[in-house]
Design goal:
Elements (H helix, E strand, L loop, with lengths): L24 H15 L6 H11 L1 H22 L15
Helix pairs in contact: 1-3, 2-3
Length: 94
Protein backbone atom coordinates (compact mmCIF):
# COMPACT_ATOMS: atom_id res chain seq x y z
CA UNK A 1 0.00 0.00 0.00
CA UNK A 2 1.49 3.36 -0.95
CA UNK A 3 1.08 6.50 1.06
CA UNK A 4 -0.17 9.66 -0.72
CA UNK A 5 2.39 11.57 1.33
CA UNK A 6 5.27 9.53 -0.11
CA UNK A 7 6.01 10.68 -3.67
CA UNK A 8 8.60 7.92 -4.23
CA UNK A 9 6.13 5.19 -3.17
CA UNK A 10 8.61 3.80 -0.63
CA UNK A 11 6.02 3.70 2.12
CA UNK A 12 4.19 0.64 3.31
CA UNK A 13 1.31 2.81 4.47
CA UNK A 14 2.53 3.66 7.94
CA UNK A 15 3.06 7.21 9.02
CA UNK A 16 6.81 7.13 9.75
CA UNK A 17 8.41 4.45 7.62
CA UNK A 18 10.32 6.65 5.18
CA UNK A 19 13.63 7.52 6.94
CA UNK A 20 14.75 9.92 4.19
CA UNK A 21 11.98 12.30 5.19
CA UNK A 22 13.08 12.94 8.77
CA UNK A 23 15.01 16.17 8.15
CA UNK A 24 11.83 17.88 6.96
CA UNK A 25 9.70 17.01 9.99
CA UNK A 26 9.60 20.57 11.31
CA UNK A 27 8.60 21.97 7.94
CA UNK A 28 6.04 19.25 7.20
CA UNK A 29 4.46 19.58 10.63
CA UNK A 30 4.30 23.35 10.17
CA UNK A 31 2.52 22.95 6.83
CA UNK A 32 -0.03 20.52 8.24
CA UNK A 33 -0.70 22.78 11.21
CA UNK A 34 -1.09 25.83 8.97
CA UNK A 35 -3.55 24.02 6.67
CA UNK A 36 -5.54 22.78 9.65
CA UNK A 37 -5.74 26.28 11.14
CA UNK A 38 -6.87 27.69 7.78
CA UNK A 39 -9.60 25.09 7.46
CA UNK A 40 -10.78 25.55 11.06
CA UNK A 41 -10.96 29.33 11.45
CA UNK A 42 -7.56 29.59 13.11
CA UNK A 43 -8.26 26.98 15.77
CA UNK A 44 -6.26 23.86 16.55
CA UNK A 45 -8.11 21.09 18.35
CA UNK A 46 -6.72 18.52 20.75
CA UNK A 47 -7.34 15.58 18.46
CA UNK A 48 -5.32 17.18 15.67
CA UNK A 49 -2.42 17.94 18.04
CA UNK A 50 -2.51 14.30 19.19
CA UNK A 51 -2.27 13.26 15.54
CA UNK A 52 0.73 15.56 14.96
CA UNK A 53 2.45 14.28 18.11
CA UNK A 54 1.92 10.68 16.99
CA UNK A 55 3.22 11.42 13.51
CA UNK A 56 6.15 13.76 14.23
CA UNK A 57 6.83 13.25 17.93
CA UNK A 58 6.03 15.43 20.92
CA UNK A 59 9.09 17.63 20.54
CA UNK A 60 8.50 18.60 16.90
CA UNK A 61 4.73 19.07 17.25
CA UNK A 62 4.99 21.18 20.40
CA UNK A 63 7.76 23.31 18.88
CA UNK A 64 5.63 23.86 15.77
CA UNK A 65 2.61 24.91 17.84
CA UNK A 66 4.71 27.35 19.87
CA UNK A 67 6.15 28.91 16.70
CA UNK A 68 2.65 29.32 15.26
CA UNK A 69 1.38 30.90 18.49
CA UNK A 70 4.36 33.27 18.58
CA UNK A 71 3.73 34.37 14.97
CA UNK A 72 0.06 34.95 15.75
CA UNK A 73 0.98 36.93 18.85
CA UNK A 74 3.41 39.11 16.88
CA UNK A 75 0.90 39.79 14.10
CA UNK A 76 -1.73 40.85 16.65
CA UNK A 77 0.76 43.16 18.38
CA UNK A 78 1.61 44.82 15.06
CA UNK A 79 -2.04 45.59 14.33
CA UNK A 80 -2.92 47.11 17.71
CA UNK A 81 -3.19 50.87 17.27
CA UNK A 82 -1.05 52.72 19.77
CA UNK A 83 -1.72 56.15 21.11
CA UNK A 84 0.85 58.74 20.20
CA UNK A 85 2.68 60.23 23.19
CA UNK A 86 2.32 63.69 21.72
CA UNK A 87 -1.48 63.50 21.81
CA UNK A 88 -2.99 65.46 24.69
CA UNK A 89 -5.58 63.64 26.73
CA UNK A 90 -8.62 65.72 27.61
CA UNK A 91 -8.73 66.70 31.23
CA UNK A 92 -11.64 65.93 33.50
CA UNK A 93 -13.30 62.90 34.94
CA UNK A 94 -15.16 60.55 32.67
Amino acid sequence: MSNWYDPDHLSEGTVRDNPGHEENDDWDCEIELSCHKTENSGRVNTVFMRYLRDKYGHKVADRTLKRAQKREQRSKAEHIPTMSTSTQMPSGVF
